[in-house]
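Late entry, written up from scratch paper. The run itself happened at the end of the previous shift, but nothing got recorded in the book at the time, so transcribing now.
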Amino acid sequence: SRVPLSCKRQKRTEGTTTVRWLERNDRPTGKPPERKGFGSTLLESTVARQFRGTVDHDWRPDGLVVTITLPLSGVEN
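Output as recorded:
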């Protein structure tokens, strides 16, 4: 399967970069799963603790859009 991924430096939010991907579901639901998996937990803790960033999940009927926002100071070094 393919997961489209994009990354860009935000102009409006100086000093951040955004990574976004889309996961298409075979069985669309439009809502989060009942419990968080290991990968999600690891991603969120790594982004928050090591990079001081955020992870946002947008559960859509056709899949999931994950947006990670990172301060450039945490990723440029």
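The mean pLDDT is 79.
(Scratch paper discarded after transcription.)
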